User: Fold this.
Amino acid sequence: MPENRRTVGSDKERMAGAWLEAHGHKILQYNFRTRMAEADIVSLDQDTYVFTEVKYRQNAAEGHPLEAVTAAKQKKVRMAALYYLEDHNLSPDTTSIRFDVIGILGNELTHIENAF
Assistant:
């Protein structure tokens, strides 16, 4: 019986979060969502708020997971960042932010800083 996609996605997001923590990030929130936008992981890397999109593929048959971060997905993550900053009384003009992507292919994790 195939695993539930949401459960697998959540497990891979936690794996990505653990990797980020091991590399100095403080995880602030998983799955920040609004009606129109979402960010898988919000973390703090020193003084920079990082909004990370996590994509997983069991194997390369459907392509590399990094290829799945489309322009539309990027727009949603950017919108989520603006909502997050507003919710936390942070100005986008004075707050350092960054957009990262973590692709997980099987058990191999690839982290791209400043992906978009």
Observations:
- Residues 34 and 80 are 7 Å apart (CA to CA).
- The chain has a mean pLDDT of 93.
- The chain has two helices and five strands.
- Helices lie at 5-22, 71-87.
